[in-house]
């Protein structure tokens, strides 16, 4: 299969590429095109081509897809903080680029499976206590608005047979390795990652703030799994809330204390940021996993194990 991954220089995109190239991959890859604004890391694998490509340029989508593809993972996006700070750029990168890709696939490869990575950031407003796949969206940010519009586009292109589109809404991913980014949920990794690296971390939301979380490993497995499912299982609405676990910020710090000890956990302090606290308070933290689990998606067992995964897979690499 010919597979394309956008945002492949990013954390999740890079891990998806590695997973697709592994012997255990459920997708048998013959050609893998990895692209981002900056060329993704080269791999010693004859199946891989890396491209530096700005998806907001008019010819990018047509150039990337070329003669077609079998599976397309679209992870490229401008994160929530930057989208809120620069409306025009955020819409161009998150909405317009996605539509260009869908149009290029419609013309060149209408049978391709198109996996769009959305976000629980599409939800806001007066919500029910527990969210499911059919809960109406009311995004509290421009980032969430672009994601919601893309979900509708993917659904309509799929309905009309222009492409086999599927959208997966990602929980907040924690713990992400590397440097903090401008996402409004960046602290959900920072309050674990920084202390484990001996660095103090300031949490901008109160300890009672609950979050819907998934580990990087589980999110990567779930994004790939979405491409392996039969088209018929999605029905008229092709968007799935990926499974996660509800954890309060205070419980995250307690889990850090359990795994790494009091000294490490003491590096976390609280200083409220009104803007970040307001946005995060609107985003829902309780979801019904039933449908996704029936479709074979995966879920983490508890947050302590998520921290242990970070220590095992990423902490030693960063030191």
From TrEMBL:
Protein name, UniProt field: NAD-dependent epimerase/dehydratase domain-containing protein
Keywords, sorted A to Z: Carbohydrate metabolism, NADP
Domain of life: Eukaryota
Keyword NADP listed: yes
PANTHER family membership: ADP-L-GLYCERO-D-MANNO-HEPTOSE-6-EPIMERASE, NUCLEOSIDE-DIPHOSPHATE-SUGAR EPIMERASE
GO molecular function: oxidoreductase activity
Organism: Arctia plantaginis
InterPro entries named among the record's database cross-references: DenD (IPR050005), Epimerase_deHydtase (IPR001509), NAD(P)-bd_dom_sf (IPR036291)
SUPFAM superfamilies: NAD(P)-binding Rossmann-fold domains
Residue intervals of the NAD-dependent epimerase/dehydratase domain: 3-197
């Amino acid at each position: 299969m010919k597979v394309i991954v956008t945002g492949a220089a990013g954390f999740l995109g890079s891990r998806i590429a590695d997973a697709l190239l592994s012997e255990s991959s459920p997708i048998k890859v013959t050609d893998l095109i990895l692209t981002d604004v900056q060329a993704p890391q080269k791999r010693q694998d004859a199946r891989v081509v890396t491209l530096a490509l700005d998806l907001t340029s008019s010819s990018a989508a047509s150039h990337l897809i070329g003669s077609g593809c079998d599976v397309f993972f679209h992870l490229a996006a401008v994160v929530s903080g930057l989208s809120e700070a620069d409306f025009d750029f955020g819409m161009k990168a998150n909405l317009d680029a996605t539509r260009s890709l869908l149009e290029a696939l419609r013309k060149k490869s209408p049978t391709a499976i198109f996996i769009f990575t959305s976000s629980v950031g599409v939800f806001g407003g007066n919500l029910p206590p527990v969210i499911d796949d059919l809960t109406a969206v009311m995004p509290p940010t421009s980032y969430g608005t672009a994601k919601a519009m893309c979900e509708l586009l993917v659904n309509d292109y799929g309905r009309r047979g222009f492409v086999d589109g599927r959208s997966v809404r990602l929980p907040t991913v924690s713990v992400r390795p590397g440097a903090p980014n401008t996402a409004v949920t960046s602290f959900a990794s920072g309050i674990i990652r920084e202390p484990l690296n001996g660095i103090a971390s300031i949490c901008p939301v109160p300890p009672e703030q609950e979050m819907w979380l998934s580990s990087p490993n589980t999110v990567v497995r779930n994004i790939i799994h979405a491409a392996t499912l039969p088209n018929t299982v999605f029905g008229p609405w092709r968007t799935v809330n990926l499974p996660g676990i509800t954890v309060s910020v205070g419980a995250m710090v307690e889990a850090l204390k359990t795994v790494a000890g009091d000294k490490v956990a003491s590096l976390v302090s609280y200083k409220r940021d009104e803007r970040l606290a307001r946005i995060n308070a609107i985003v829902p933290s309780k979801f019904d996993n039933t449908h996704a689990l029936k479709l074979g998606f995966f879920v983490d067992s508890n947050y302590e194990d998520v921290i242990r995964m970070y220590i095992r897979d990423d902490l030693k690499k960063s030191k």
